[in-house]
């Protein structure tokens, strides 16, 4: 199978096209104009947020707090260094990692913020069943199609946050995506709503949100909250290792990024491999390979998971795909699958304990799918 000779993306990856030199459109920067447009908009909104006077209501912003390292790090800064009145919003995702939940508990003890917990188990599970049980998507696909379940889940609780901010008249929503994610995320509230309607249709969308989203489409712009990305301000020196080290020194983080993944991480990989023959993090790993090849002396990482320089990405992807599809089909030996997974995750720079924790979640994939009503074929 043809692969990009620079970053290893396959020719079959959604949204990827190889030229005559076997270089993909991402390496050729074909997305640059769209990314720069989004970057300019997010930068302008963040500058506006920094300079904004106190809001008329009780809070200046609703801060989306997940318990991961990025949101924990920035929540600590918002409360300790920024002069903003913050409502820390956590959506109680039923697929939450136990380690992320532990980090949230630590933050509640140590960070003097106002915390609010939101939940809607039935509807988010209904949406995820619909996504996973859809017929195979049409090829060749569009950019980020392999991440549809993850993007849908994230958009669901972002919309819940938008509705809470809208009802409580909170003008800004802080979303702590890392610098690489920022450039691929929609930041306009109205467009997020339109995109969800397009993905799930009017009937299911109105079922999931009780018909409330429609009001966001027709209200005046000044009444809608704006989404800000705090990491846009530190995009040039984003360092996940330093962030984790600082949090651990303050007693605010006890896990690794691998361990704070949601429990659907194995199913996200299953979806990517089954439909698109790629690992879930392929775009992110390819971006790291691309940056290192362009500048061998500069090992900058702009994504939450750090990939080692020595990673044989094509080999890891092939072996991970084989074991994920075998587990989904109920085939092979459990102990052999565990040994393979631990080896692969350690090669991706996870500690042995973290690798075993994540491997166990992959081995439990079939039971998690059965609990949610997700069909594995």
Task: Produce the secondary structure layout.
Layout: H1 32-51, E1 61-64, H2 69-80, E2 86-91, H3 98-110, E3 114-118, H4 121-132, H5 148-167, E4 172-174, H6 179-182, H7 189-209, H8 213-218, E5 226-228, H9 240-249, H10 265-276, H11 282-294, H12 313-328, H13 334-347, H14 352-363, H15 365-372
Helix pairs in contact: 2-9, 4-5, 4-7, 5-7, 10-12, 12-13, 13-14
The overall strand count is: 5
Please trace the helix and strand order, writing H or E for each element: HEHEHEHHEHHHEHHHHHHH
Poorly predicted runs: none
End-to-end span in angstroms? Answer: 24 Å
Taking all residues together, what is the mean pLDDT? 88
Rg is 20 Å
Q: Given the helix and strand composition, which structural class is it? A: mainly alpha
Outline type: globular
Largest sheet, strands/sense/barrel: 5 strands, parallel
Number of helices: 15
How much of the sequence is in beta strands? 5-15%
Proportion in helices: 40-55%
Strand order of the largest sheet: 3-2-1-4-5
